[in-house]
Specification:
116 residues, three-stranded parallel beta sheet, 46% helix, globular
Length: 116
Amino acid sequence: MVLAHADRNLDPGLHIELTRAGAYLGYDGMARHREAPDSAILDCLARVAADGDPARLLLGGDVARASRYRGYGGLPGLDYLPVRFVPRVLARLGAELTEQLLTANPARLLALRAAS
């Protein structure tokens, strides 16, 4: 199970419990500063990675509307996550955990496996 938009409720205690229970959490609200600044999302992510199950954390960029694409005159654009947010994750959480969030965790989640 993936709970998307987890960063709309920045409660690290709840997030820790959810990852320990086996849920994947999708943090995808970066650049939505009216809801929470990127720094608050990063603080919550760091706490959950430290005290929860970091193998259950995912990053994404929720830019599903034309108003969020530069090609249609909007912001922040598709490159916000890799250009603006990921460098902050890398500086705060280190290369190994950043790679896990961006590559290993989604690969495991999206792997097609036969039901056992």
